Amino acid sequence: MVLRSNKTGNRFVWAPPNAVIEPPSYGQKYNGGSIMVAAIVCYDYKGPLFFFVNDPGNNRALKPFNLDKDVYINQLLPFWFEDLRKKGMIQGNKLVNGYLFQQDGAPGHTAKPSMEFLDANVGLENVISRTAKKLPEGDCREKTRAQWPANSPDISPLDYSIWNMFKRRAFDYLEKRDGMQYFRDGRHCRDILEYTWDNLISVQDINRIIDGMPKRVTKMREANGGLVEGYRKANKGGLKKK
To answer: Cα separation of 115 and 73, whole Å?
Structure first.
């Protein structure tokens, strides 16, 4: 079995060593499973990992997980917001001290119930999001602070750098601790990922990546909004192997 990941590095799959993984068919084809994780970060802050689990009683054969509005507002956002409240970043159901909450345009993020939940817990005036066009005028669309681009992996630090750094260090730790290049099962995978995130990804790592944003945005403007993936100088600190 080997560790696999998708393009952005945030899905980890166990499968036979020489298997060719072609999502989304891997679950049925290889009788394996996956663990999908989500994270929240900003300058000087690293939130806890959230693990999407279909069947908490079966850690061996988890199925690919889809993030819909129900999971978003009933599990993921409450989990994150609890930590933000503990850190004093949310007070009185509002983000404070200039903090903003940014999300992309995934359907589960921009559904009306999701936007209303954000409004009730952090205030849409503090949210940057791609909002669904089907939302009525004068509703969540106008209250949202700013619109996030429809396709934006090059300006999301998690997408263009942090996930890849996380994946690489998880590989390194797995080999160093257990002398392995694969996970035994879902619990083993989760243990490695939790240790890596908690102990091998620092707030300083995240700050260094975010510090590279001005250069990255400059390159995006020079490319007229086009992709700049692979331009390492825009975020050399975040992409350099430790």
So the answer is: 9
